[in-house]
Structure formats: C-alpha cells, structure tokens
C-alpha cells in the first residue's frame, strides 16, 4: 500500500505535508505552469498589512554562497484592496490556501486577521510576527514572548480558522516564544523565519541591500532551523511546520525527524520550481522502502538518546 | 501551420556547443526545440543549476536557429561559473520563455539599439526582427575594453551600422555609449539593454527628445516568474504594465512598484520612475 503523506496542522488537513513559504510562491498562479499545485499541501500567501506598503528600496535581493538575503519589506496593497481585488484569485487553487498577516500593533494584527479570516478563499491564517525587514518593528513581536502571546490571543479572538504562528530564529530562547504562542491559542507554529544578515559590496563599500540588512534563507540556515524545530517540539504540544533551507528529500527528513509535522519550502522554489513535487514523491518512496504507512510515523523520531551518555563530567564544551 | 506553444515551461535542453567569446564571456548553444519556437526578442530563461547548489540564473535568450537556442553571458560568480563549465552533451534545464520582451512591430524606419556590456545578449533577436521589417538599425555598443565588444561583427554582417565605444579607448570612441547616442542624429525609436546607469541615461535622452524607447532592465531576480517581488522598479501609476496595486506617492508623483521579471523586463522609458 502506498504510504500516506497526509498530515494535519490542527484543523487544517493537508494531502501533502508541504507548504510553499509566504512571499516565495506568489498566488500559486506564477508557478502553475511549472509545478502541479495539486501535488503540494498548500500555499502560504504573501503577508498583508492593514495599510498598503510600498516595501523596501532596491536592491531587495542578494545571492550569497549558501543562500539568499532578501529585504522585500512586506510590499502589499493593504487589507481592503487585497480583499476586494486580490483574494478572488485564490478561490480555485487545487491545494490549501493559507493567508498571512503582518502588523505593527496588536490591533493591526487582530483587525487584519479578522477581515482575512472572514473570507472563504483561505482555510487558515499565518501570523507573521517575525519579518526581519521592516525596520525591526515587525520582529519585535516575535522576539518578545509576552508580546507574541498578546498578538496571538488578540488574533485568536477573531477567528476559528487554524492559526499558524511563524517564529523568528533571531532570539535567545525560541522555546519561550513558542510556549506563549501555544498558551495564547496558536494551532501550529512555523519554525523558522529568516535569519538576520547583511552583505557589503567591497568595491563601493556600500551595503548590497537597499534596506542595509535583510533576512537570510536557503541551506545556510538549515542547521539553525532544524535545531529550532527540535527544541520547540520538546516545548509544545501543537504541530510544527519546519522551514529553513529545505531543498531535497534528506533536508525534509531532517525536519520531520526533529519534530515537524509539515515542512515549508521557500527559497528552493527559486532554484527549481519542481522541487516540492519531487520531495513529495521521494518522501513516499522513502516511507515505502522502510515499510512505514504514513509520514506521521517519523515525526520527532530523531534518535538523540545516546548523546548525553558520552559527556564527560566537568566538560564545559 | 502548427500553432506555437508560447506557454512557459521547464525545458530539458542539451548543450550542443560551448564557445568562449572572450575571457569570461561564454556562448552556450542548446538543443531546445520548444523553447526556440516560443521565444520572442528580449525574453529570458531561468537556468536551473545542474548541481542544485544555488538559485537559478536569469539569462537572456541570445539567438534561436531551428531547434537551437543560445545564451550568452558574462561569468560573474558561482552560478554563471557553473554554467560556463558545461561541456557539450551536458543537460541543462531551463524555465522559459519568461517576461515581456521588446515590441519590434512599430513602423519607425530609423532605430537605435543601445547595448552595454552583457546587454548585447538581449538585443540580437531584436536587431534581426527590426532589420527584417526593413528598418535602418544603428547599434550603439559600449564595453569596458575592445575584447569585450563580443559579436559586434555579427551585427555588422547582417546590416547594422556600428557605433562602438570602450571605456579605455581600445576600440571605437573612448567614453560611454550614451555619449555617442547623444551626439548622433536622433533615431525614431530606441531599444536598449545594459547596466542600470546606462539605461537611466538612455531613458533621459529618449524622454528629452520625445523618442519612444524600450529599455530592458537588469535586476537581481529571485524566482524570475513574479512570485517573490524581489526585483521591482517604480512605474508611473498610469502605466499599462503597473500591477493591480494602490499607487503610492514618491517624489511628487504616483508610483507603483512593478516586477522586472514578470511585468518587464522591457519597460517604456516614459513609464519608469527610477
């Protein structure tokens, strides 16, 4: 029997455990000529804010040796324009559609979440409390456990739709933020957003991004993300979407084994739009090869029991 | 006649020939029948890195011939270096043909093509289309040094008049290609591709002289298909190419950020607000 790749994030049922990361997959329409959207779990739409945002100045992207720095700056038309003129595009997508909300105050988050969640075109909401590209304001929420709790609670009060909270890796203890997001009613956590970074042109001596700093994604951040998923999985009882530099089957498996229930693919779509579909096929083959019936059988199964036995007393390293 | 399939797709191509036109300038000829039949002047492809170790690279389709399509590029880093190392027989998957190219169908009889450096890769098909409809084509082509004026003779051979410039004066006039354009008798239309400062200057000249100009912009692409909004340029809000977004005020006029990859890469000089 073919192993099942179906998974759940709270009430959100996914036929495939693969989400396409917010801001990386447009509305799905842009990638439809190259990828079979019915073979992916869902698309997380680009974040929308209460008011329109022009976004950051260019250049907004820099390719670095093992990943990409971006500073888009949440360019979006604002929630009213979005509801009126954009959202209808997502109605007939053959996969789940997750809306994404960003904001600059607790009220903003709650307002946009309520307006967005009232629409049938989307089946879940992601709270982006961790964008590193909006002059630090946006990230403040995701970097402070108490603020995260208040934002999530305010959003929770506006909707029954599944709520996914996207956490920042740019914190000392991600588990503290994760616990409070769970306590406030999050249905799932997306772990992690990009890692803050910077690149400088050594000829002109100027930063290579118009915004000076940006968010690093791609394989460079994968070990950071795997650790974050592993730690968060020990700390909470809600499902985790693992994300950060997933490019192939092996990368995806690391995240499941660390404790992710689903994975999200972002930058890898820019390498090859066929990657999500390929990973899904290879996951199925991997499970079959090991006589496993479903993806859920490997979630959180990383065998870490042995490592502590080899620590030496008094070893501070 | 069979209808052309213009929908972009992933093409599994094979390298037929690799040629180093100058140090760091590579021409790859690909066996790509569907791509060759679909591509229009000024369109590009995203080349999927065979190693899978970096993001795809945006490359203009330089030429098409029968079942072959070729790409001409300067090696500037890891991604282009990998592509330049592909030997004949190697497989290269490309996504395309992407973007809105040049509209060569106008009725202007005297046109200028302005190319700076690697920008030459975007204008060969444009030059052929313009010559085919009987236009007089003057190619203003600038590069750092003589060796990098690749393929200039090829343009001359098909009937383009050449006005060459180099930064160091080793071939053609010494100086910028835009200076040569400014000194020349004004054309009826301009088609241009090159680095941003050059395009900005070409746009200024065109706007001052009220000459219609199509500029193919260079910007770092993320996805290349319009999904990430990483490669934007400001347009006047009334532009036909402006996406469905509320306009914002900038510098006293209404602007909208458009995607270079999806809404362009070719824009009209008078719709751009740099």
Give a quick summary of the entry.
The complex is a heterodimer of chains A (317) and B (274). Chain A is an alpha/beta fold and 317 residues long.
The strand count of chain A comes to: 14
Strands ordered across the widest β-sheet of chain B: 10-9-8-7-11-12-16
Kindly report the average pLDDT value of chain B.
94
Number of strands of chain B: 16
For this entry, what is the oligomeric state of its chains? heterodimer
Overall shape of chain B: it is globular
User: Which bin fits the share of residues in helices of chain B?
Assistant: 10-25%
As residue ranges, the low-confidence spans of chain A are none
Sequence of secondary-structure elements of chain B: EEHEEEHEEHEHEEHEHEEEEE
What is the distance, rounded to the nearest whole angstrom, between the alpha carbons of the first and last residues of chain A? Answer: 47 Å
Show the largest interface.
A-B, 39 and 38 residues
Structure overview:
The complex is a heterodimer of chains A (317) and B (274). Chain A is 28% helix and 18% strand. Chain A has helices spanning 79-86, 106-117, 137-143, 145-156, 174-183, 222-235, 249-258, 275-289; strands at 7-9, 12-14, 18-20, 42-44, 61-64, 67-70, 96-101, 124-128, 163-167, 188-191, 195-198, 213-217, 240-243, 262-265. In chain A, the strands form 3 sheets. Chain A has an 8-stranded parallel barrel, surrounded by 6 helices. In chain A, strands 5-6-12-11 form a 4-stranded antiparallel beta sheet, with no helix packed on it. Chain A has a two-stranded antiparallel sheet with strand order 1-2. In chain A, β1 (7-9) and β2 (12-14) form a beta hairpin. The longest helix of chain A has 15 residues, at 275-289. Chain B is 18% helix and 36% strand. In chain B, β7, α3 (124-132) and β8 (136-143) form a beta-alpha-beta unit. The A-B interface holds A 23-27, 30-31, 33-34, 46, 52, 54-55, 58-63, 65, 68, 70, 72, 75, 77-78, 81, 85-86, 218, 247-248, 267, 269-274 and B 7-10, 48-49, 52, 54-56, 77-79, 93, 95, 219-233, 244-246, 248, 250, 255, 257, 262.
